[in-house]
Amino acid sequence: MQVLSDSLSADCFAPPAPFGHSPGAGTLPDKGLAQRRLDELLLKSVGAGDKSAMRALYQRYNARIYQFVLRLIKNASVAEEIVSDVFLAVWRDASRFEGKSSVATWLMAIARHKAVSALRRRSDALLDHYPADTMIDPRDNPESQADQMERCEIIHRCLRKLSPRHREIIDLYYYHEKSVKEVAEIVGAPEGTVKTRMLYARRHMSRLLSTAGIRGLS
């Protein structure tokens, strides 16, 4: 399974810049206990009506939520609307958070629910969105850039051959670095189902990459 691990940890998973933000803004914090406690304190303050806490929580998570939704929706304006809806729901329902999962997982679950609802209304299919022009290191020479772009395009084509539910699992597990338990909470499926989907997705993706001549990316 080395082919898959090497490929999906490459720069081809570099996300697009979120709307109204520079590339480093609003990144997902580390999964450490201190970060989780900070998130919970912020959410508790939000539940008490603290607008400054709401702004802080938004800055910490809006970029990742936007990127996740954009890959599902493939429509920037709709993704922006959904991000706004997510944080409106957070402002309204923060006091109902029970702490059964991390705040990050709770936010992703809200975002996924709203994205899937939007997709159903629009009758669109899930489609990954990884623009090639955001994946190239400007320090590379033209030849290296061309090679990297070609590899990324091949990976994207392979990803699009997976079913929506399997692409979603790959996205959450590899790009968002969620555990199997967290993925299960986000997609609303048993852990056993997530493991089965992950196994199929990894095997299928490995075969696609191997057939396409991708045997690991630097």
| Average pLDDT over all residues | 75
Which stretches are poorly predicted, pLDDT < 50 over at least 5 residues?
14-26, 123-141
Rounded to an integer in angstroms, the radius of gyration calculated over CA atoms is 18 Å
Q: Tell me, what's the shape?
A: elongated
Number of strand elements: 0
Order of helices and strands: HHHHHHHHH
What fraction strand? under 5%
The biggest sheet, with number of strands, parallel, antiparallel or mixed sense and barrel status, is:
none
Number of helices: 9
How many separate domains make up the residues? 2
Class by SSE composition: mainly alpha
**Distance N to C terminus:** 16 Å
Query: What is the level-2 CATH architecture name of the largest domain?
Result: Orthogonal Bundle
CATH topology of the largest domain: Rna Polymerase Sigma Factor, Chain: A
What are the SSEs and their pairings?
Blueprint (H helix, E strand, L loop, with lengths): L1 H7 L24 H15 L3 H23 L2 H18 L9 H20 L19 H19 L3 H12 L4 H8 L3 H21 L7
Helix pairs in contact: 2-3, 3-4, 3-5, 4-5, 5-8, 7-9, 8-9
